[in-house]
Amino acid sequence: MQTLLLTHLIAALAAPLLVKHVRRAAPWILGAVPGMTAAGLLFSWVQGGHQVLEARWDWLPQLGVEVALRADGLSLLFVALVGLIGGLVVLHAGHYLATSPRLGRFFFLIFLFLTAMFGLVLADNLWLLFICWELTSITSYFLIGFKHDQSYARDAARRALLTTGAGGLALLGGFAVLVTMGRQAGLDLGQASTISVLLQHGDTLRADPLYLWALGLILAGAFTKSAQIPFHHWLPAAMAGPTPVSALLHSATMVKAGVFLLARLFPVLGGTPTWTITLTLVGAVTMTGGALMAIGRKDLKEILAFTTISALGTLILLLGVGTGPALAAMVVFLTVHALYKASLFLVVANLDQRTGSRDMTVLGGWGKVMPLTAVAALLAALGQAGAPPALGYMGKKLALLAKMSLPAVGEWMTLAAVITNVAMVALALAIAVRPFWSRSEKEQPADRGPVPLGMELGPLVLALLGVAIGLVPSVFDTHLGTAAASAAAGYPVPIKLKVWSGLNVESLLLIGLSLAVFAVGYLSYRKLHLFQKRPTVAAPLTPWTPTVLYDRGLNGMLAGAARLTGFLQNGRLRTYVGIVSLATAALALPWLIKATRSDGWSLGTVHAHEILLVTIMAAGAIGGAFAGRPIVAALAVGMTGLGLALVFALFSGVDLAITQLLVETLLVVILVAVLVRLPRQTHQPSKLGRVRDLAIALTVGATATLAVLLTAAGDRSRDLADTLLAWSLPEAAGRNVVNVILVDFRAMDTLGEVVVVAAAALTVGALLAACRKETS
Amino acid sequence: MNWVPLRMVARPVMVLLTIISLLVLVRGHNEPGGGFIGGLLGAAGFLVMALADSPQTARRLMRFSPATYLGTGVLLATGSGLFGLVQGQAFLTGQWWFALPGIGKIGSVLVFDLGVYLVIFGATLQILLGLLNVKEEERRAP
Lengths: 776, 142
Fold this sequence. Notes:
The complex is a heterodimer.
Chain A: H1 2-21, H2 26-47, E1 53-60, E2 65-71, H3 73-96, H4 103-122, H5 126-144, H6 151-184, H7 189-192, H8 195-198, H9 202-207, H10 211-225, H11 234-237, H12 243-252, H13 257-264, H14 266-269, H15 273-295, H16 300-321, H17 324-355, H18 371-385, H19 391-404, H20 410-432, H21 434-437, H22 453-471, H23 477-489, H24 505-526, H25 528-532, H26 546-568, H27 573-599, H28 608-626, H29 630-650, H30 654-675, H31 687-713, H32 716-732, H33 737-745, H34 747-775
Antiparallel strand pairs in A: 1-2
Helix pairs in contact in A: 1-2, 1-4, 2-3, 3-4, 3-12, 3-17, 3-22, 3-23, 4-5, 5-6, 6-10, 10-13, 12-16, 12-17, 15-16, 15-20, 16-17, 16-20, 17-18, 17-19, 17-22, 17-23, 18-20, 18-22, 19-22, 20-24, 27-31, 28-29, 29-30, 32-33, 33-34
Chain B: H1 4-27, H2 35-52, H3 55-62, H4 66-86, E1 96-100, E2 104-107, H5 108-140
Antiparallel strand pairs in B: 1-2
Helix pairs in contact in B: 1-2, 2-3, 2-5, 3-5, 4-5
């Protein structure tokens, strides 16, 4: 397993070099990596007699973070799909983007994504899973925004990142709750973060009062990632990425991460009434909604995006039903969908490459020109339509049976499934038949020349596999299928796929239903243009669709941020000083008042010369406040500063005194040098403004006074001083304790401060340079 | 400021302040002083030059830009922490190497303080010379 991950990481780093030096061979070399390594892992699993594979290394044991990899049936099903589709997509994309100057970067990103995806499905540690989960979101962001010079691509990428990122945040919270629950159940931190351990404590965890929090947060993460209504809006937008990316990420693999997570955690979280109701409801709405939304589209890629949403809804619905047969149906349907959807996306990419168009109302008759793609489309469409002999037929059958089995709502679920299936049949015909075999009245776009073999191979292999497994289901069902379904359920769920399940009422009913679905589906396909006229019924709802709500939320947030910035940073220095001082005082004052009440305070002994000094300082400050000219104010404040230096000197803080003196001198000199040229009074504050300023000044002054009094009264400061004085010479070989503290005892603090000073100085330099540019 | 006496003493004052600032830096561990004060004193020297003559003269006499000084300072301060690290101790643990007559013990702590000196020196001059420069240009503009 570690080999699998490392190989992909190395491939990611090597990809730009390969593209640079062996451009023609690079797609073939790189394309072999995911498939071969995944096959290797599957092979060792079969060799080991279907034993679970494990490997673990410590990472941050204090936090329960461990690089724990575990390959059971469910993980391996995903590994197989990701490896197979990933390899073919890499091969395809290498030709699809052959002319792109950023091909190396593309391969780098896609292999990074593959590493994260494999890590996600193999992780046995919640935090490792989470990290991989976020990595898939981030790489997906870059891949959707691959054409980053186009604003629509950037918007789509941001939409996907914000939506799935928000879900990821919820997921992080959900995992934290889950680990807390595990700790309460008596597990230690490492165990509570390990998925395979949690899976064995399902009953205890489901009874925990925190269960609903964990479930809600994890569902939020899964639903955003797997594009469930109302979070689905990012998925169609994500079609802004290159089509092979859509084939891999937004149909077959990444969007299924949510489904994977819920299947993975099913033995922990699943089966409760809340689980069943939420998942079946959301799943059913998404399933039907996705299909209905797909049917009005003209862009083939968009149709595929919406049917993906629908398929994800079906998977969530099946997880919600949660019975053994339902989980078996989920596994089969997931495999079916991954194969045909990736294949169809690549078909559309080929069509796009050859014709430059993806409009189903325009294209027609391309079957004779590109027969391989057309055959792939046809075979894949069998899967989508759920027609025999494709595996899709069995997937559909199992899914339908599972939906019917739901108590109370079985009929409604059946109705929803039938509607969805009708739409799927119609759309399958629209994708696989119309562009290739129909006679279009519209003028066809110019032929852009044949598609290379590397692009023909992907869709064909995937579509053929879908049919081959349908013909010989035993290669799948008793091995990987059963193992995956059992891993998801937590108990053995044997899958036995049969095209013909004997002559009984149930099978007759199913066949009848299927035939009816095909018939209505064909009719809908003939009348598809009716749906494509923008439905006016839904028009009043338009401002409330999730897409629009997201836009509004984003714009509102940006406008709010702009307003807040405008209020806090209005360009007037006095506002900044006011806000910063007031905020500091507001944070410290309540605490100071409380501490003064409990600890008391004392002035200590006061000498006459001290009073004199303080009076001088106060006079300087007050004089500064009332000075009419800036230069007078600067000098007056300088007097206060010098007084402070004297105070330091009196209390034997020689270093502080010297520093203060130097700072004050430099400050006064520079103020005088700069302020001479300022006008007399730039801004005459109103009466109210002066009262406000006075209030701010008094508050800040009171805070500082209280802090000083409290420090003088406490014993802790004395202890600290004595300790530091005692340590200074023996521990740090220095007699100047102030300096020893700065450069030795608290050197880390000083380092931080020094870096802040450096950053501030550089910023001032940049600002001044900008000013200069503006004036010149 | 075009005041002849100031211009005459500016250069000696600058040299003197620079020397004093370095002394303050070195003796800081045992007597009042250290990198922070030293850096300020050093900056004050060049500031005198900038006020008496022009910011450009001060910049020229500095040889390197203020940003170079403060960058070197951050590097030295951070780098001094590595000495402790390679010894298997915590980052920034003080290491002492040998003693020099008249200066005292030499160690990573002094390197750290030199870093602080350079950062304060560079930062102060970066800001102040920058401000004076703006003023200078405004004066030239009508």
